[in-house]
Here is the input.
Amino acid sequence: SRLNSIKNNLAAFYTTANTKSPIPLHLDIVLEQFAKDRSVMASTSLQTNLEMISQRMPGYKLDLSIHLMGEVEDLKKCFEILKDFKFNNNHKYTIFVPENYADLFKSIKSISKNIGIWYDLDEWYKGNKADFSEKDGINDYLIMTVKAGKSGQELTDEIKYTALEIVKSNSNSNFMLDGGWGVDFRECDYKNLGIVSYSSFWNTFKEN
Here is the structure.
């Protein structure tokens, strides 16, 4: 599995990711109804993913970001899973949910300070003004730079630089940019920026 690949090649993982401990892991969880609505494949369940990581990497320091892509019923199920889940103290969790579900997930005491908000491309780009300042204790944001749930999209320069300008202009908030980015992206070194480069990362990591 990829978790075993990371454990067995940790130095190469850090080099490819251009980072150091804790180990950054990002989970895109495409939930059932969200997947049906977009005719894409759903992910392995949130609970299965969380349990697998806890069981296989219990003693490792992880920085785990979880992107929950779901409709109403999907997100209610995730809430029920998370409110009873035994979180690993070695793992730092940031769980990204749609803005109108942030208060619900913040009501889970064990992760009340670990909730972030994600915006799809059409929620922040081209005249859609999302607010990226800190609000109600939340200052972690995931911005989609392609449309969530659609494969084969390319990141355009206009979207890329618009997203980077948001990061630069909101230095008190933390950002992850997701969609079309390469693992070799080095154009800027903002301390509040993380890049999700799933396919690019694993292709490069395999080559090393």
User: Anything to note?
Assistant: The beta strands are 23-30, 62-69, 91-97, 115-119, 140-144, 174-178, 193-196. The CA atoms of residues 99 and 117 lie 5 Å apart. The first strand starts at residue 23 and ends at 30. The mean pLDDT is 91.
